[in-house]
């Protein structure tokens, strides 16, 4: 039996028996220290994140491919139009930093999924980057920091993101970097993290899940909503309501290759308080159809 440490084991195959992952492993060469190093680990509880064998170069290639697919999609076209026609014309706030929380690992998978399936996280990353590009059309000289915080990031994730010039924060360091001038993108994360982040930052531009589906709006299932905010559960709903009452909400167009956009919303501070509708459902104009997107392509009349 080899004396190689467990963290150099490589997953060759994975099957499930009785709901538990059963692995065939082999011991490869020791992990190298250059940017192409491989990070691997064994599988245990199938409901946790597990790293699998990948490299920074693999992520760079995947990133290039996914960026192209995203920017050719109707979802990106719709997002770009909304940012250009609405968000970038609002003068009542200024963006100086961008932060992504809860992205998930780009080089690890859920134990119940096929190893290598990190498409959702990578698509969310390239979407976040495209949003920053759009914001920089107006705030090019203002945005000086781009932050990521994700406890499931492994060595390959951190190396890849640092290579792209981003700052990786350790939990809960993000709370010290938040302000009312931040664009907050939260494609994942526990409800307590969402509430705590909104409480600390009160961001003028926020993209994440439906805030009205938080447990604070379901009194029959109270849950430990005040744990991270230091507030009791009965105070959490007014906290979220105060944020919603000062924001408009806009849906995102479905992204067919990996549908994560249809359950995410853009919350933004409008140009005038006259546009707000406190106490009412958030306005949700239907995004353009696929047919209308096709009509905008070159050669279409």
Strand content: 15-25%
Reading the helices and strands in chain order gives EEEHHEEHEHEEHEHEEH
Mean pLDDT: 75
- Computed CA radius of gyration, to the nearest angstrom: 21 Å
Largest sheet: 7 strands, mixed
Q: Can you count the beta strands?
A: 11
- Cα distance spanning the termini: 69 Å
List the helices and strands and how they pair.
Layout: E1 10-17, E2 20-26, E3 49-51, H1 56-71, H2 74-85, E4 97-101, E5 108-110, H3 119-139, E6 145-149, H4 155-163, E7 167-169, E8 182-186, H5 191-201, E9 205-208, H6 233-244, E10 248-251, E11 265-268, H7 290-295
Parallel strand pairs: 4-6, 4-8, 6-7, 8-9
Antiparallel strand pairs: 1-2, 3-5, 9-11, 10-11
Helix pairs in contact: 1-3, 1-4, 2-3
Keywords:
301 residues, alpha/beta, seven-stranded mixed sheet, two-stranded antiparallel sheet, 7 helices, globular, disordered N terminus
Description:
Helices cover 29% and strands 17% of the residues. It has helices at residues 56-71, 74-85, 119-139, 155-163, 191-201, 233-244, 290-295; strands spanning 10-17, 20-26, 49-51, 97-101, 108-110, 145-149, 167-169, 182-186, 205-208, 248-251, 265-268. The strands form three sheets. The protein has a seven-stranded mixed beta sheet. A two-stranded antiparallel sheet has the order 1-2. Strands 3-5 form a two-stranded antiparallel ribbon. 32% of the residues are buried.
